[in-house]
Amino acid sequence: MKFIRFEAEGILNSFRVPFFRTYHKTFFAPPKSTIIGMLCNISLKSQKDFFEILNKELIGVSVVINNISGKTKELWSYKTLKKGNMGKNVVRRDKLFLSAYIIYLQIEDDVLFKDILEVLTNPKNIPSLGLDDELVIIKNVTALNNAVFVQNNTNRINSVFLDKNIKYKVNIAEYDKSLKLPTPNLVPTKFTAFDSQGNRISKEVKEEFLQVEYMNCEVEFLENVESFVDMELDNRVIFY
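Structure (tokenized):
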């Protein structure tokens, strides 16, 4: 198993919680599907590649929220099918201001690992997390070796995780920083998008879990989980 660490920073980004329609509430961290989508986009991979990587779990991800300077809202106008496609509707969207993330990737396949490491350093397309205009800067791309990235000997983490019925508690270590306590929101993790013959069909959610995200605190699981420690940045992360 090989690991990659990189940083992603954006000015205004939004990661829509999918079950909010008239009001686009945002996750505070990009879901796995958004990260895999960005990787496929900068690699010029197809939609089929995207769903294969996601559904077969060819890449594990872990996200640490480094900073969010604030949250704002915008009004988004879009066309509807009413009045001969001339109708309009308006939706309110949350936008995160100056968000910064440390993202870890877990990849087993050597060819895929080399491909992703290369395109993170030299993207073939403009990187964005979310919509096409929600651009991000990718920096500090690093392949982590076994001396830097080691097995965690505690049950404490500070990365986003999926709640798969594992009990946990929150540890608050520093009170002088902007604090966001764990917040769960349902997120799709696998989809059905192609039939057995490889033809594109309407996308359906195949699996979903609660994504738990927080900032400047730790979560301690009350049972054993597989997690890792980044010795350089002192991040304790779990992959999903």
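The longest helix spans residues 32-43. The chain has four helices and 14 strands.
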